[in-house]
Amino acid sequence: MKFQASELPIGKPQSRRKTSRLAPLIALVIVITLPLYYPTLRDSWKQLYETASPPYVDSITQAEPPPTENPCSTECHPDNTTALDHRLAPIRKNNDKDKSRYRGELRSRVSDEDQCDLFSGEWTPDADGPYYTNDTCNSIQEHQNCLKFGRPDRGFLKWRWKPDDCELPLFEPQQFLKLVREKSLAFVGDSVAQESYAVFDPSLVQGCESVKTEKTDPNDERRPFNLYLDEPDLHWTSQIALFDYVVISAGHWFFRPTYFHLRGRLAGCLYCSEPNVTHLTSYFSYRHAFRTAFRAVNEAGFRGVAFLRTYAPSHFDGAAWDKGGDCVRTHPYRRSEVVLEDYSLQLYLIQLEELRVAQEEGRRSGGTFKLFDATVAMLLRPDGHPSKYGHWPVENQTFANDCVHWCLPGPIDAWNDFLHQLLKRETDGVDYSVAHTLFYFL
């Protein structure tokens, strides 16, 4: 999928723990394919493009709901495989209860059934956390540096993810560097994906040199996007075959004004004012984008392991993001207190469906696609967002609260733990946390 920020509405635009110094070589590369998030974007374009009101999930108001679904002609699909493969989805229902049941069935198909499920569990108290601070880490981005900007509570730092049926060891930098010695790792995604890289830096920066990153497209982010849904972005696809491991993710940027292009033609738009342009949903672009990205990986001759890091839900309580919605909770939800539903559930299903397609294609091309399921764990952490603590207050100026990105230190430190164990399974084929648990109970 290729994007560009457009000046004209239609047509081509005119781009955890502290450790001693370590010696092993690691090529840790982050590839950002979508522009970075800035809370101030709202003031520039919401005058022209008004977002729809979000659905309410019990007491939780989620962030960026899609507009009303509109039918799309067959010309919107690049080929007949874009429509859902009915072999993979024998039951596609419209209500969330049926979708939740379908989610469980689909998730079991894309998961490693012979391994402990790291992603089903609860957050448990951890008096020892965090294992670094905003003072000991120089790679935390300003909008994530909640402690620097005055967040008063510290309870959100005292939780650790505990899978139901095994242990999830804490990230160990020395062990991780051994796993990826003479290997290369790429993160492909948006600004939340960039946070994935920042999560690693606190632990690895003492042993490795940080890699400079830059946005792939310097155009004005306040203008509508032109999204070429069937054209892979050569910024990363031209290099992807060189990597051993790839983590692919994206989500929240699919809810802003966009013009969709397929086969070199304008196929439709999201939040545009032209009456003669087909109005499509975020679901449409989301599915196309992941299918194009996965297909590009398979067609590039990739022989490594690609992980899909699933959608991390936002948590806007009380109102939409641009109408004063906030995330003020100071502790996690229990699993029984909240469910994944509405548009967050739909995006998650799209990811699983496209992962399943990619897995089947990968078996023929030589690539491997696996699930890195962060969705449930992050759904339970409304307390982990910056809210108003991603910047200093400015007199006579109002900013939207950030309930999309994550504080560092914070809940996404668990992504270190997840990825460490996923890579360990790939390198030695033994999940020692499971072996230890089985030995203990026997």
TrEMBL record:
Residues 168-196, 214-421 form the Trichome birefringence-like C-terminal domain. Keywords: Membrane, Signal-anchor, Transmembrane, Transmembrane helix. It is found in: Membrane. Its main location: membrane. Pfam families: PC-Esterase, PMR5N. Residues 115-167 form the Trichome birefringence-like N-terminal domain. One of its GO terms (cellular component) is membrane. InterPro entries: TBL, TBL_C, TBL_N. The chain crosses the membrane at residues 21-38. It is a single-pass membrane protein. It comes from the Eukaryota. Belongs to the PC-esterase family. TBL subfamily. This is Trichome birefringence-like N-terminal domain-containing protein. It comes from Salvia divinorum (Maria pastora). The lineage of its organism: Eukaryota, Viridiplantae, Streptophyta, Embryophyta, Tracheophyta.
